[in-house]
Amino acid sequence: xxxxxxxxxxxxxxxxxxxxxxxxxxxxxxxxxxxxxxxxxxxxxxxxxxxxxxxxxxxxxxxxxxxxxxxxxxxxxxxxxxxxxxxxxxxxxxxxxxxxxxxxxxxxxxxxxxxxxxxxxxxxxxxxxxxxxxxxxxxxxxxxxxxxxxxxxxxxxxxxxxxxxxxxxxxxxxxxxxxxxxxx
Length: 184
What we know:
Blueprint: H1 5-13, H2 19-28, H3 39-61, H4 74-88, H5 96-102, H6 122-128, H7 130-142, H8 154-157, E1 164-169, E2 175-180
Antiparallel strand pairs: 1-2
Helix pairs in contact: 1-3, 3-7, 6-7
């Protein structure tokens, strides 16, 4: 399951408090921060990289994905559950409480534990980590999220010269991704 990138990054970032996922993410992924950034910027960069690496890894190991925003549509949710049942060869069991949670309006998902006063923007992300912002936008577009043309990173504004995203495990078994420019 994937959720809209900017909203997810904003929620995960939580004004720089990334303790909930930071250590686990650093152990399992190739997160690398720019040492010249402020602590808050480093934490935003970690959050961006975590989002990209987590969801890209999910794409690699999954045959199907579902946007969290689409789970409020019972028809789409039922269709996805049916196709998962066909893929696995056995019925996917969904409890009544799980179904209710999946159908909850995702526009009101904040548990009120955190105060989210400031938006996270594509420009903000691009200023601290252009390659991962590019991969984040590529991921968003692959999953059908809309990004206004004026907010696309320069690498994605020219459809004929998009970079390619590559991913692999390193010697320690940590998952990482990088961009490779297409040769002219």
